[in-house]
Amino acid sequence: MQHICYYFFMEADGQPLNGLYDTARLAKRLGVAESSVRAYVTKGRLPKPTGYLGGNVWDAEEIEAFLAAQEPKPVGRPRKQRDPEE
Predict the structure, then answer these.
(1) Domains of the chain, residue spans
(2) Alpha helices in 12-53 (DSSP H)
(3) SS3 of 21, please?
(4) Going by C-beta distance under 8 Å and a sequence separation of 6 or more, which residues neighbour residue 60?
């Protein structure tokens, strides 16, 4: 039964099936490699998986809420603050 559920889970192209992300789809959603997803979970940068269906799965609503709550990280070097008196 577990293999059937996993196969069916993988059939949903691009969207989480039944509100779940597997590692590959979560990596695609985040724009990172699957190994990065695993590292983020280990380092506590992502929630722990909700369950296991032939591989780790996450609740899509939990992931989306987690991502929405994150502050955007600046890209590149910080700009120097200009002194208004100059």
Answers:
(1) 2-66
(2) 23-30, 34-42
(3) strand
(4) 16, 19, 20, 21
Minimal CA–CA distance to 63: which of 37, 43, 34?
A: 37
Map tokens 């991502």 to a residue.
67
Whole-model pTM? Answer: 0.65
Distance CA 72, CA 49 (A): 23
Angle between helices 34-42 and 23-30 (to 10 degrees): 90
> Distance between CA 20 and CA 10 in Å, rounded?
10
The H or E element containing residue 59 is: strand 56-59
CATH 1.10.1660 given to domain 2-66: yes
5-43 pLDDT, tens digit each:
444 444 445 555 678 999 999 999 999 999 999 999 999
